[in-house]
Amino acid sequence: MISPVIAVLRAAHADRYAPVVNVLAENGVRAVELTMSTPGTLESLSSIRRTAPDGVEIGVGTVTTVDQARAALDVGADFLVTPTTNLDVIATAVRAGVPIYPGGFTPTELWNGWDAGATAVKLFPASVVGPEYIGHLRGPFPDIQVVPSGGVGIEDVPAWFAAGAAAVSLGGPLIGDALRGGDLGQLAERCRRLGDVVAELEVA
């Protein structure tokens, strides 16, 4: 089952991750994507997992090559996320039995990722097309599972879920300046606000 919210962390260095991961987890965000574009990500994953609350999924994103995918799996990534539709990377995760969310934008890219065995496909950058794009995709691809990413704000979440999103992926609008020394209390408040939005959708 896909966690409804995936938080995307991109920092100057992976030594900024741990406090933010813990605040996210303690305030209801149970899936966290650490990005390969952040120096030290793979080296830090094991220690972050040890200190994070139980039940938190910690994945690795911005995976662009098979070697990166294998390295992330070797250090225990719970899921992989890619910015592109790389069929070899998808196959690597599928063979390992690890969820993967490959990125795509066009119907061809998104279908190719889904057809290759992706857990869900990441629509990126989602804000360019908006929630109605999922409805268009569902015409030819009624079963496709889509996770919008890129420019998705907390206030946008209801519209994306109403359109049929399997989950939402949030970076800057959720994380803010927390990875740059910002107020973790404000991050916790944004997490709680997001949690309230998701809870209201589940009740509805």
Structural class: alpha/beta
Largest sheet, if any? 4 strands, parallel
Give the end-to-end Cα distance, rounded to a whole number of Å.
20 Å
Detail the poorly predicted runs.
none
Round the Cα radius of gyration to an integer and report it.
16 Å
Helix content: 40-55%
Outline: globular
**Would you tell me the overall average pLDDT?**
95
The count of DSSP E runs of length 2 or more, i.e. the number of strands, is 9
Major sheet strand order = 3-2-1-9
SSE succession: EHEHEHEHEEHEHEHEHH
Share of β-strand residues: 5-15%
Number of helices: 9
Pfam families: Aldolase
Keywords: Carbohydrate metabolism, Lyase
Protein name: Bifunctional 4-hydroxy-2-oxoglutarate aldolase/2-dehydro-3-deoxy-phosphogluconate aldolase
Pathway: Carbohydrate acid metabolism
Care to describe what's here?
This protein is α/β, with parallel strands linked by helices and about 200 residues long. About 40% of the residues lie in helices and about 15% in strands. It has nine helices and nine strands. The chain has helices spanning about 15-25, 40-50, 65-75, 85-95, 105-115, 130-140, 155-160, 170-175, 185-204; strands spanning about 5-10, 30-35, 55-60, 80, 100, 105, 120-125, 145-150, 170. The strands form three sheets. The chain has a four-stranded parallel beta sheet with strand order 3-2-1-9. It has a three-stranded parallel beta sheet with strand order 6-7-8, with helices on one face. The chain has a two-stranded parallel ribbon with strand order 4-5. β1 (about 5-10), α1 (about 15-25) and β2 form a beta-alpha-beta unit. α1 packs parallel to α9 and α3 (about 65-75) runs parallel beside α4 (about 85-95). It is globular. The chain starts with a strand and ends with a helix. The mean pLDDT is about 95. This is Bifunctional 4-hydroxy-2-oxoglutarate aldolase/2-dehydro-3-deoxy-phosphogluconate aldolase. Pfam families: Aldolase.
